Amino acid sequence: MTVYLPIAELSVNIFIILGMGAAVGFLSGMFGVGGGFLITPLLIFYNIPPVVAVATGANQVVASSISGALSHFRRGTLDVKLGTVLLVGGLAGATVGIWIFSLLRSLGQLDLVISLLYVVLLGTVGTLMLLESIRALRRAAANQPVSLRRPGQHNWVHRLPLKMRFKKSKIYLSVIPVVGLGFGIGILTSIMGVGGGFIMVPAMIYLLRIPTNVVVGTSLFQIIFVTAYTTVVQATTNYSVDIVLAFILMVAGVIGAQYGVRVGQKLRGEQLRALLALLVLAVGARLAVDLVVTPEDIYSIVSEGVYR
Amino acid sequence: MRAVAALCLVVGLAVPALGWAQEDKPAEFPEKLEIGISTDEIAISSDFRGADLTIFGAIEGYDPSLLAQSKYDIVVALEGPKDNNTVRVKERIFGIWVNRRSMTFELVPESYSLSSTRDVETIAAPPVLNGVGVGIQHIRLSPVGYLGDGSNLTEFRDAFRRLKESGGFYQRDPGGVQFISASLFKATVKLPANVPNGTHVVRAHLFRDGVFIAEKALPLRVMKTGIEQMISNAAYNQSFAYGAFSVMLAVLTGWLASVVFRKD
């Protein structure tokens, strides 16, 4: 069954889109990641224009992050004050990101930059995850107890000025690195269509030393607002949010995520993480190949749409 | 049939009155072209897979002897809405294919469907066709703010035409125009499957022995209908509301999922 995507301006098989959404949703439920960093490249492989894939990806992340954030809010594992400071940086970053996005689009370099950023991001994240899971597997094989790394309590980040007290997180921290982190993630959200949790969570834990229990909820809080903001700004500046595509993806995604959570609770983490790492690396490699292989046609046409 | 006969009669009667004495003045020809379509608006749904559009027309004030020798040629073009189009070419930099050079053509039709009595290239000489701007090879492609020496102009123009033709936006049908009586003709132009929304122009050209002598144009509104077009219109015309609605839909979906699948 085909469905016409009004903004991407092409007909797609609805079951392939549902399958993509469900598979990525399943993985995101299993590993507790947002999944935006897999959805966007998959859409690009399925010939959805990168402009649309990125903007629609951001919209889809709103849906996949809401339920998680709600449950963290109910459990009280969400620091609204810290989240708001992150959000200030995030919104500023997203605004700058959209500006870069539009500039790259008018220069005809947007597709290239999106692909390059994904190759770098997926390559790095995939490699780190793979190394980490191999270490964990070795430890398990050697029957060593898995020890949580607990490095020194303070680093350079804690010597910065403009400190603020975050009661819920029980920390006293400068707002500069928090706003800066939000800013960087905001740029990624608008250019790549990702929530950015997979970067934000480790950065909050290892760099900012925020207690682990509030990290996920707080990052989800910021992701919801930044992706929502990005969706609206993409819709008004680049007209590139495809609501039909986004809706199919989010319905399949939220259902897939529920099953992913259940399966994830039963299975052992190390092998799964190694598998996800390999998948992430494979997606990155495929994008890298597309950049290098001689294109079918080296010429392309874009209509400006000024008289639309 | 009676109407056709009547029209022919009228046309036939008109000939002796007008005559062909003004042969030497190229700007003044006795022949006139008339065309008609059954509608000035077509509504198409999003599952549209292309269709033929039939245009009827007549040559008025023709010369019967020239007509008998098939000296008259008719070219009918359906031109889509115009927009600036940028052609880009990729080059390899450090192993990666990167868009390097580009050229923007000013207000070219998004779609172009051509139908003629015979291959356009044989109807008139290239300078004539270029002057009229009829034929895929002769559409006006003028670069915006172009100051180069013109060496790569041909390259980009050729690429533009090739991409438009391979994408099905530009089509031609030599033999799509047929005379159904002495001066009455029927032209069949193809509406491509991905026909752009907006005001198109049906433009008919009359050539006599390689000389362009008359032209007639009619507007044709192509209106896409259905839910997909409504969404597309909303995205472009009420983009803020559209974006806000997209976000609301996502919030609702996420919230519903958390309610439906709640375990406690």
UniProtKB/TrEMBL annotation, chain A:
GO (cellular component) term, any one: plasma membrane
Membrane topology, from the record: Multi-pass membrane protein
Transmembrane segments: 12-45, 82-101, 113-131, 171-194, 214-232, 239-260, 272-293
Keywords: Cell membrane, Membrane, Transmembrane, Transmembrane helix
A UniProt-annotated Pfam family: TauE
Localization per record: Cell membrane; Membrane
Family note: Belongs to the 4-toluene sulfonate uptake permease (TSUP) (TC 2.A.102) family.
Entry protein name: Probable membrane transporter protein
UniProt organism field: Shinella fusca
Lineage: Bacteria, Pseudomonadati, Pseudomonadota, Alphaproteobacteria, Hyphomicrobiales
